[in-house]
Input
Amino acid sequence: MARAKLRKDETHVTKQRVGFIGLGSMGSAMAPRLVGAGYEVAGFDLDRQAVESFAAAGGKAAGSVAEVGQSCPIVLMSLPTPQAMEAVAAGPGGLREARPKIVIDLSTSGPRMSQSVARRLGEAGILFADAPVSGGRAGALAGRLSLMVAARAETWERVEPLLANFGRTFHVGEAPGQGQMTKLVNNLLSVVALAVSCEGMALGAKAGLDPQRMLEVINASSGRNSATLDKIPRSVLSRSFDFGFSTALSSKDVALCLEEAEAMGVPMLMGSMARNLLAVTSARFGGECDFTNMARLFEEWAGVKIGGAKP
Ligand code: NAD
Output
């Protein structure tokens, strides 16, 4: 991989310019944090409304990926799919042609796509870090995400102060894709925990237990997990089903995880079940529905509501 040289004055000045591509559920919460931290941030999204909202939050509206890449030495991406990330990073009119110094992928893109994009950007002298995040939109808004970063040591040193604006940073390795692999394992655990928690809560509700009280007990006991602590009280008991993560994106994460596991010959029983549950959630409520709607499946099967006013 060609070693790109980075001039200090381009990355260590106080009012540093950075680009942010993908201003969706996560990007629209993360990019304004950089504005708040004093960076000059150029934002682009295919959705003009998202760009206008970002400009209203103090960002600079950009008209294309190329414009962002040409005007900013560091560009961050928060994009929905590996294919979208590849197109922005290495496709026609993308960052590979625009030649920023460093590209950081905050999306969940999978290890293999990260490796492929890192290689193609490296050939153009562009440094790459995969830095997928965990913590949801609420964590992004509060600057309390965890970031799983794979980057060469010198790239890590340069990007860490920028990424620290989003939350807690972990350097998990130097090889491209290692951040992605960490993220896929994390999300496997997260979605399986959501599924089994919905199943258990539906059973308890049918047995006449108060869901709120059940959660209080579970969260003080050995069954607690990210669904009982956060997703179920916030988005299921309230009946808002608005955690901020779509069923389609969760399905993508699990599919990427299963693909990696299959390639490595590792059986994934829980992962396969989670994939099927997400497929049923999507068939029942639509792929764009929040993945906490999975709770409604268990409610329908049990003939009970886990909480709130209406099913
Ligand atoms: P999202 O679908 O809400 O946002 C993605 C944005 O990217 C959209 O605004 C879309 O218009 C834009 N986009 C798509 N293709 C583009 C292109 N070619 N050029 C410019 N913009 C483009 O997704 P999200 O929930 O913000 O998630 C973003 C990434 O973060 C995903 O990879 C997801 O898996 C990951 N993630 C999400 C969460 C969460 O809770 N939402 C948590 C952790 C990680």
The CA atoms of residues 29 and 141 lie 5 Å apart.
